[in-house]
Write a structure and sequence with these properties.
Layout lengths: L2 H18 L3 H15 L5 H6 L11 H13 L3 H9 L15 H11 L4 H9 L11 H16 L4 E2 H17 L5 E4 L1 H4 L4 E2 L2 E6 L3 H10 L3 E7 L3 E6 L4 E7 L4 H9 L2 H13 L2 E3 L4 E3 L5 E2 L4 H7 L15 H6 L14 E2 L13 H10 L4 E7 L11 H18 L4 E9 L10 H6 L2 E5 L8 H12 L6 E2 L17 H11 L2 E5 L9 H9 L4 E4 L11 H10 L13 H10 L3
The protein binds one DNA strand of 29 nucleotides through helix 2, helix 4, helix 6, helix 8 and helix 13.
Amino acid sequence: MNNEQVADVFDRVADLLEIKGEIIYKTLAYRKAADNLRNLPVDIQTTRDEKRLTEIPGVGKAIADKIEELLTTGKLKLLEKLEQEVPPSLIELLEVPDVGPKKAALFWKQAGITNLAGLKSAALNGLLRNLPGMGEKSEKRILDGIEMVARRSKRMVLDDAWTLGNQWLEWLRELPDVKRAEAAGSLRRWRDTIGDLDFAVASDNPARVVEAILQHPDVVNVLGRGENKTSVELKNGVALQVWIQPTINFGCLWQFTTGSKDHNVRVRELAQRQGLSLSEQTLTRESDGERISCETEEQVYEALGLRWIPPELREDRGEIEAVKHGDLPNLIQLEDMHADFHMHSTWSDGRNTIEEMALSAIQNGHKIIAITDHSSGLGIAGGLRPDDIRMQRAEIDTVQQKLGESIRILQGAEVEIRADGSLDYPDDVLAELDIVIISLHTSLRQPGEEITARLIKAMNNPHADIVGHPSARLLPNREGADLDWTAVLETAQKTGIALEINANPHRLDLPEAYARRAAQMGILLAINSDAHRIGRLDNLVYGISAARRAWLQAGHVINTWKPEKIMAWLHTRSG
DNA sequence: GCCGTTTTCGGCCCGACTGTTTTCAGTCG
């Protein structure tokens, strides 16, 4: 079993424990452990073999034993027992808004409901309204909720979420009662996919802002409305939440709405230990009830004796400890980037010529780019045959002459890693290229051992410089290849090959947990746009956000290097 | 079930909103 599968088991255990009515802290413990396993950059099997399971945050003796049991037998007695006691199909009910573990247990024990279909038919037949604590309104709410689950849009990729988010920000900022409006939630933390959109608004007349939002033509469903917040469903199926506080409290509000939940729990614990209570409205000194308003986030963190923490780090993955010890990383920024090593032209499946790409890259402030069209194996993308490569070289030379010193254009290729781990070009062709990216595009469903061996074999080719989108995942839905990451990272460390953080918002690949681990291991990283047209050179902003979430600093990323250093590095490789 | 700048035992964030209630439970972020 891999990390993800063990985490799924623990989430299932947590769901069932919760419905069963186990104390909440036990279920939270399983969820926390599951979350940390998903973000563990090393294979759980390795950690087990090294007897270091309890070093994982949130994993103590009991959960370590359960991981051991799962890895040894592939099963978990606790889960089997729970599935006997509580119908597992009840977990479906937790998807419905306003149905939590208590309601699910109520429906099961008092109405014999065990799954979503049963809940729907009970609601339609008016059987829920007479249950304790229920009424007609609750019954209707649940029915609406079931329909919403059915039509709810899947998670958005980052550029779609920001496009929609920015439209709303512009609209909110034009409202006469709005002093300030900012993105919050996972959007502001730049998570790789986004569910709901969250906004923090400063206004001295919150009720009028709520009213205006409810009148917006795109709002089709009101999920909740209060004095200081409202939650609505848009016609495209996206849920949107807006919190509103007076300007003087905006710092507390923005901090709270940005999350993550786990980060906020830690911050509030910290406040509590200092005799302070932090809410979305204000900081309160518990000794005398004095309310300390914070207009900025900096004031909130400062009041707790902390430096401001960049939103990308607010995931309770060590940022609180780091800021306390004064070693928060100086995160990489877009302005640090001077190069882009992965883009396509009309020679394969790109929309723009080499010259157009180069001119646009100059506009973006780049000093070096690499044109990396597909190799011939990827027929669907019009890959280049070896003869084409020599002709393309002539065109690059011409463009280079024309543009002079304003930019340096490298000839590269995105070379297919074949199913057997060999590369799509022979070594003599690879040697002609200035830079070689190797990528997986096909046969991605090979078993873990096979695809890991395939990638490692390719990484060992001395001409290969960068592994393109290493997991080959596609957001928001297609999982990456079932790679043994410990082995892949060790190979990168040994060979000195760089790993790409592909900045296409559908990829953001290398995934952040492995990017963070790679940097810790001293592995070089590259952030590349993979642009297929000039407008997409701007993708780098998403790659930067992924890198920041992986705690990367400029020095970890070869695109920030000076041109001479980049050329020197390329010369040391492939020989 | 985890964890330790109060603690190896006794804590474990905080408030808004909703619908059901006559003061609260459940859900959510």
